[in-house]
Design goal:
The complex is a heterodimer of chains A (about 250) and B (about 300). Chain A is an alpha/beta fold. In chain A, about 25% of the residues lie in helices and about 35% in strands. The radius of gyration of chain B is 21 Å and the shape is elongated. Classes of the chains: A alpha/beta (about 250), B alpha/beta (about 300).
């Protein structure tokens, strides 16, 4: 059985987001990147592969432009790539999860790594939802995972700090930011990646009968502009601000 | 109309966000049932005004967090509109329950109206999404975005003793040593950026925080630069999203990364020596000064209040 890492291409966190009509204008996004938490999932997926836990497949579901992200993943060492070409912008959590579960089954993977949430929707539903559909053990807020016998040992955030947990296959790890360094592709990796072929499929190819979305997106709007604040010069003004916090804002 | 609320625990008691979940549910109208995993806070939950019934879940699987087994017990009890906190565990549990009841989930909402019109922040605060839902569905609510319900209720408490196989085994708990209050839970936050110069200078933020009972946060630049500043303190797009009544940013320039995590704070104070720092664009009150001058004055003035 294989290891799968789920990657999502999102507007780079430094990119401006414009609303055109009643939707975010994707065409105006200057730069698309792999969602930041997914990069930690990819790093640990590579470490598990190197520790002999199985071949590694990178899976994404998204439009044509997402293919570049898979090529980048190949350049750091994933063995194969699956791209489910679909427009996910208006899909609800159930639709996305059903596509990804079909993709995971298609690849015969039973160890899944993903980010704890994507930087566009900021949700965090996909990992645990998939784990539930697969009947896999779900470990969220993960910052480290290692092979332990036939299973895995992971470090996750808890209410008191961290805790070390053990799971066996099938299992899913949703990654928080980790302290590890992310690897960057070298020239050899980039050359190798160019020769790797991305398996590109549609939802029909995977035999998915998509139900209608049960979440109807009414509109996207730019966040309300804040009225300009008051600005003071010098540390002497601290007293004025503290009084305003008490009397004007009523917060202290 | 049924509303099911997943209670949020804090230690051995109820987290205040639970009252906010009930407050939001009450604004919709309907019969409110609160599920208390492990029975934690079930008596307190029964005293929240507007709650009809509390189910105290006593099964063995609730002794440690495992969203798979918890949701297997909770899904059959989750009716209509299901609401949880958008804490990490609330999101994970909510998503698992949604999958098990065949419903969609919308995470981290900041507004809900009758007819199930919900709003939430997307693209890390750079846009607001409004969507409409039908039941069954699951939503998680951002902490401090909703008014809490008051006390004075007297709901019945029912014990359900079901368990399922646990698939995540906790081997070792690693407690944080002397960690200060978490920024996610704080009404007041004072955060430092790379402008603090040295990580040891965060002690000056701690001193101000102690005067007003605030939590201490940090920008990504500070967390990435100094090992002494843990990621658990990071406010921003790849850290925590916070919603306090007062946010004081010290030596933080205001990168879009940081603004994404704190711009919805009710009041923002910025202290920065650079008058052109972008942080002043979101601040209600800006002070152009060095932290070395401003923090002692701030500590003194706050200390005068009582």
């Amino acid at each position: 059985m294989k290891i799968a890492v789920l990657l999502k291409q999102v507007p780079d966190t430094t990119a401006k987001i414009a609303v055109s009509g009643d939707r975010v204008d994707h065409a105006s996004v200057a730069k698309w990147s792999t969602s930041p938490y997914d990069e930690y999932a990819l790093e640990y997926a590579l470490q598990l592969k190197e520790a002999g836990a199985g071949d590694l497949v990178a899976i994404t579901c998204g439009p044509d432009r997402a293919a570049k992200m898979l090529t980048d993943a190949a350049a750091v060492g994933v063995d194969s790539m699956l791209h489910v070409v679909a427009d996910t912008a208006e899909m609800d959590s159930k639709q996305i999860q059903s596509i990804l579960v079909a993709a995971i089954n298609h690849c015969e993977a039973d160890v899944i790594l993903c980010g704890k949430q994507a930087a566009d929707t900021n949700s965090g539903s996909t990992g645990p939802g998939i784990a539930s559909l697969m009947g896999a053990a779900c470990v969220g807020m993960v910052s480290e995972v290692t092979v332990e016998g036939d299973g895995f040992s992971a470090l996750r955030a808890s209410s008191v700090g961290n805790e070390r947990v053990s799971v066996s296959r099938p299992c899913l790890f949703a990654f928080d930011k980790a302290s590890t360094e992310l690897r960057r592709p070298n020239v050899k990796g980039i050359m190798m990646a160019k020769r790797k072929v991305i398996e590109t499929v549609s939802t029909d190819d995977l035999g998915i009968n998509l139900e209608e979305s049960q979440v109807n997106i009414v509109s996207h709007d730019s966040p309300p502009e804040k009225p300009p604040g008051q600005k003071f010069e010098g540390a002497d003004s601290v007293r004025t601000v503290v009084l305003k916090l008490r009397e004007e804002a009523n917060v202290i | 109309m049924e509303i099911t609320i997943i209670a949020e625990a804090s230690g051995k008691g109820l987290h205040p966000v639970t009252e906010q979940l009930v407050g939001a549910a009450s604004s919709l109208g309907g019969v409110i049932t609160v599920l208390c995993p492990g029975g934690v806070g079930s008596n307190d939950a029964s005293e929240i005004s507007g709650v009809s019934k509390v189910i105290s879940l006593q099964g063995d699987c609730f002794s440690s967090f495992d969203s798979g087994s918890w949701s297997a017990v909770m899904a059959p009890l989750s009716q209509g509109m299901v609401m949880a906190s958008s804490s990490p565990s609330g999101r994970e549990l909510g998503a698992q329950i949604a999958s098990k009841i065949g419903a969609p989930i919308v995470q981290d909402i900041t507004g809900i109206e009758p007819g199930y019109k919900v709003t939430r922040s997307v693209y890390s605060g750079k846009a607001v999404e409004t969507s409409s839902l039908t039941t069954p569905c699951v939503v998680t609510l951002r902490q401090n975005a909703f008014e809490g319900a008051s006390g004075g209720g007297s709901a019945e408490v029912v014990v359900v003793d079901n368990s399922t196989e646990v698939s995540v085994a906790v081997k070792e708990a690693i407690a944080k040593a002397g960690e200060r209050m978490d920024v996610s839970d704080a009404e007041i936050i004072i955060s430092g950026g790379r402008g603090m110069g040295e990580p040891s200078n965060f002690s000056h933020l701690n001193e101000v925080a102690d005067v007003i009972g605030a939590a201490v946060g940090a920008s990504r630049a500070a967390v990435d630069t100094w090992d002494e500043i843990p990621h658990s303190m990071q406010v921003g797009q790849t850290g925590k999203t916070v919603n306090p009544t007062l946010y004081i940013a010290v030596g933080i320039s205001g990168a879009i990364q940081h603004l994404a995590g704190m711009r919805s704070s009710k009041y923002i104070v910025a202290i920065n020596k650079d008058p052109d720092a972008p942080i002043f664009g979101v601040a209600d009150y800006g002070i152009v000064a060095t932290w070395e001058e401003a923090l002692p004055a701030l500590k003194e003035e706050l200390g005068k209040l009582s």
